[in-house]
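Quick one: structure tokens for this chain, please?
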Amino acid sequence: MDINIVDRNVQITSGQREHIDRCLQFAFDRFSSHIRTVDVSLTDVNGPRGGDDLQCRMKVVFQAKREIVVEGKGVSVEAIVAETADRAALAVSRRLDRLRDSQGSSMSGQ
């Protein structure tokens, strides 16, 4: 599983990058055999005006070339990445459950 982090108009420190990497490893480790890449894009949408101005867009690409995209907004890099990773991991879990269910039901009809 490859992790790619892109920061647009956001200055991410090396410590924050390590935190993001650990957070994503924790969220997706149990699915790593099914995931090809996790792309994280962090953008400061309001510039210097402040507010909930950080946007985190997380794209999870499966080995089967399907993908899930989850977005979130917040004020701190660490918090928004953790929240978005949790939501993305839940979406991945649901997608894999649906795939297993559909494969199981197609096999039981044979």
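Residues 77-108 form the longest helix (32 residues).
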